Amino acid sequence: MKTLKVRLTFKEDVLGMSPNTEEIHREFIASKAPDAATIEDEVAAIGVDEVTEKGMTVFPRVDGKPFLYDYQIKGFFKDACSMLARVTGKDENGKKKAAANESSKLTAHKKIIDGLIFVYPRRIPFVFEGEIGNLQRPLRAQTAQGERIALANSETVPAGAYIEMEIRCLSDEHEKAVREWLDYGIMRGIGQWRNAGFGRFVWEEIC
After folding, report:
1. Model confidence over 80-120: pLDDT tens digits?
2. Is this prediction's pTM over 0.90?
3. Which structural domain, as residue segments, surrounds residue 40?
4. Where would I find the beta strands (DSSP E) of the chain?
5. What does the alpha-carbon distance between residue 88 and residue 84 come to, in Å, rounded to a whole number?
6. What is the total count of domains within the chain?
């Protein structure tokens, strides 16, 4: 069994992933709309019922301190492996072939991550100075009833925060893949709105 002790330092704000209750979200929006300057006029004009369609995402807490669950890290591993396995190259005949990376070598990668790779502790606290923030962004979607607008709303932990954890690979051959996924974190991070660059991190081994 191979064990990696690592620190992840976030280069961008991390957005909460856990859903909040609808009641708390409605109270939050009601306190902001329809006159708050921080919300776009078009969103405020839709009204509270419309913008609460998508709930607020938050961080779980212990003694008021935010943390990530171990399964959220494993979720990042699954996402990273799935994306990296899509990277392709070409052979000497110009035909597409699997890229020479560790992720492309894994079959049934979700089962491997679930059953052979483990993250400790279960609750992984953020270490940072300052306060938990909040990020709101309007979302538009085309539906059969026309364009609809909702307000996505997430708590944030600031850039510069870090977490420390232990990753145990029951099979030593998976260590290279884990390192590959961690390297991928500087391009695609953890948390909500990863496509916009939030939650990106660098990592290092620690004693």
Report:
1. 999 999 887 666 776 766 667 899 888 899 999 999 999 99
2. no
3. 2-205
4. 2-10, 14-15, 18-19, 57-58, 61-62, 65-69, 88-90, 96-98, 117-120, 123-125, 133-143, 146-157, 162-169, 201-205
5. 9
6. 1
